[in-house]
Design a protein that fits this description.
Order of helices and strands: EHEHEHEEEEEEHHEEEEHEEEE
Number of helices: 6
Distance between the termini: 47 Å
Number of strands: 17
Strand content: 25-35%
Structural class: alpha+beta
Oligomer: single chain
Largest sheet: 8 strands, mixed
Length: 293
């Protein structure tokens, strides 16, 4: 038996026959065209930040078409009005980083199973929230993406957004209660996989795919039954993520800027196509922490 206040440790490992596996394969397929696509607002550097702030407050996302790609200085000015740019510390990412905070996401390689290399490949990216392994206060509030080059085939490698409220609607009350007690085992001081936020439920979760997800939480009852409840809650969450009624897609064009509220949306990417003879897809990314008072 386990006490109600004692953490139970579990390991979630997906099976090929799990329902979410098929749903994920369909969503990340480059032929997948989520509807509706996000509306695009034309703008210029002078008023783009004001437009973004207004749209983010209402919708939790904003897609802006600029006349052309902003310079790094212009992109920094734009994002500085939305939050504090976070420095890139990942040693794999540092060679692709400008001004310490602008990450160049260049799909220069084909498919890979190495998670640290996936942002620079044509591999589909599973749905996730940014920096879900960190404490809540260290997670970015907004993700800003700017398209420099959509690549040889812009109909592939679409950025996907899935609203957290749509995911919540696909979860039972029982599964929600369990997720609100679970967290990553490697981050005992971090947030639970599901918590309450200013706009509704907030998730801190990444689909690890075939890799193990180590978790812990003060689930009551016999240990075996508690572990089973935790694993079933994660399985239900993954099914709700990939089976959500709402899914938005962005087909990239040069000069488009997308801002995502990390507390209101999961995001991912459909698979791309690798053709070394043609220019690769190139986005610039900034992770924005909440502005200091």
């Amino acid at each position: 038996m386990v006490d109600a206040m004692t953490d139970v440790e579990g390991v979630f490992q997906e099976s090929p026959g799990d329902r979410h596996v098929g749903l994920r394969s369909e969503m990340l397929d480059p032929a997948h065209a989520p509807a509706p696509v996000l509306p695009v607002s034309p703008s210029n550097e002078r008023d783009a930040s004001e437009l973004a702030r207004a749209r983010l407050e209402v919708d939790g996302h904003c897609l802006i078409r600029m006349p052309d790609v902003l310079s790094n200085e212009g992109y920094l000015r734009f994002c500085a009005k939305l939050g504090r740019a976070e420095k890139e510390h990942d040693p794999v990412a540092r060679p692709y980083t400008d001004n310490e905070v602008i990450l160049n996401l260049v799909s220069e390689t084909g498919s890979t199973t190495n998670p640290s290399r996936q942002p620079f490949s044509t591999t589909g990216l599973t749905l996730h929230t940014e920096s879900s392994l960190r404490a809540a206060g260290n997670q970015p509030r907004f993700i800003a993406l700017m398209c420099v080059d959509p690549g040889a085939d812009p109909t592939t490698a679409r950025t996907l957004l899935v609203p957290m409220d749509a995911v919540t609607a696909g979860l039972s009350v029982e599964h929600q209660a369990v997720l609100r007690q679970m967290r990553y085992r490697t981050n005992t001081s971090g947030p639970c996989l599901m918590r309450s936020g200013p706009h509704g439920p907030v998730f801190s979760f990444r689909d690890f795919g075939v890799q193990e997800c180590l978790w812990s939480g003060p689930l009551s009852g016999p240990r075996a039954a508690a572990v089973d409840r935790g694993n079933k809650a994660i399985s239900a969450l993954l099914t709700a993520m990939y089976g959500a009624n709402d899914c938005y897609g962005v087909t990239w064009e040069r000069g488009l800027i997308l801002i995502i509220d990390n507390q209101r949306f999961f995001h991912g990417r459909t698979a791309g196509r690798h053709d070394p003879s043609k220019p690769p897809r190139h986005l610039k990314r900034q992770r924005l922490l909440p502005a200091q008072d």
